[in-house]
Amino acid sequence: MPEAPIRRLRWPVAASLLRKGLAMTATDDVAALEAELPLEALPLDAWHRAKGARMVGFAGYHMPIQYEGIMAEHSWTREHAGLFDVSHMGQLTFSDETGGASVDAALETLLPSDIKGLKPFRQRYSMLLDAEGGILDDLMVSRPGDGAFEGAAIYMVVNGATKYDDIGWMIEHLPDDVTMNHMADQALLALQGPEAGEAMAALIPETADLIFMQSGPFTWRGVPLWISRSGYTGEDGFEISVPGDSVALLADALCALPQVKPIGLGARDSLRLEAGLPLYGHDLSPAVSTIGADLGFAIQKRRREEGGFIGHARVMKELAEGPGSKRVGLKIEGRLPAREGAQIYAGDVLVGEVTSGGFAPSVGAPIAMGWVSLPYSALDTALEIEVRGKRIAAAVAPMPFFPHRYRRKA
């Protein structure tokens, strides 16, 4: 069973303290310090409020949790197309003076994935690992190709709650001849659902040719966009990087289409849970490993054989011997959902903990994701979860709980 996540200091906390002339001490409550920082507004803040969004604090920003209601927004996205504002996430580019060779070599030290073999206009899922092989963040890395992002060799999207930690980690480990740029002025939208392709093509017909994990530069009404066919719901869809001063115009144009409605973070979470996609800070943390998280697909054969990346020793050890615990899906009997932190038992033995859980609208039942000791991770293993002082029956289940519907062929 994984230990409690390791808490790392976010840059905004340190910056705020420095502005006040204060120093950080080992006994300071980081969570309390972060809570005192004012929430930032994303470029679409007024747009969300005008559409009646209920706003909450998330990853240091005011974010829309829902508009009409989580259940309704979840169902709309599964049936049509939902527009999500994910501008809190970090968008980074990497460049050098050698046409990208230094960038590729440097990032293959930081990431376990095959960066050198990444072709133009393609992207890959990857992770930042610490020296012990724990997961610092999961991320998407793309090869822009000539002309995009001012000739950058790599474009990367990292999680919003960890982006300043990620930037600090990479600054510490990147060589001086690699330049990293944080595109703080760029917004990021995600258009997701079975009708997302039709909606996107109504504005930009050329996007119809994209398939899953392809990306490229496009122009709409003179606005430069970077669009990838990807997302975090298990549905077909797109992620769109757009200048912050043009994002409201694009959001209005998309939501004017009959297929599209704005969707909040609540439905995004229930959709990704049904899709079996882990959420950093919940299902993933520095305390857990890539192999135990069932993310070994992100480490291609060459990287496993050659190594050379931070955390390689643990990856190879767990490939050979197996991890001590594993991320699994859990189907739950009855209607009572199990939430994050609920303990998982096999008889009287504590074997794990729920890391994400809730009612799954498309499944029609409560589901969960959690970490359990390896001997109890086989499919159909009968377990119990302690909820509100009583045990409810559960079983290890295959993921995704709802089928992925990515567009893999033209």
From TrEMBL:
UniProt enzyme class: transferase
Catalysed transformations (reactions): N(6)-[(R)-S(8)-aminomethyldihydrolipoyl]-L-lysyl-[protein] + (6S)-5,6,7,8-tetrahydrofolate = N(6)-[(R)-dihydrolipoyl]-L-lysyl-[protein] + (6R)-5,10-methylene-5,6,7,8-tetrahydrofolate + NH4(+)
Coiled-coil intervals: none
InterPro entries membership: GcvT (IPR006223), GcvT/YgfZ/DmdA (IPR028896), GcvT/YgfZ_C (IPR029043), GcvT_C (IPR013977), GCVT_N (IPR006222), TrmE/GcvT-like (IPR027266)
GO cellular component term of the entry, any: glycine cleavage complex
Enzyme Commission (EC) number: 2.1.2.10
Any GO molecular function: transaminase activity
Protein name, per record: aminomethyltransferase
Residues annotated for substrate binding in this entry: 239
Highest taxon in the source lineage: Bacteria
Pfam families per the UniProt record, alphabetical: GCV_T, GCV_T_C
Entry keyword set: Aminotransferase, Transferase
One biological process term in Gene Ontology: glycine catabolic process
Domain Aminomethyltransferase C-terminal as annotated: residue spans: 326-402
UniProt family annotation: Belongs to the GcvT family.
Ranges where the GCVT N-terminal domain occurs: 45-302
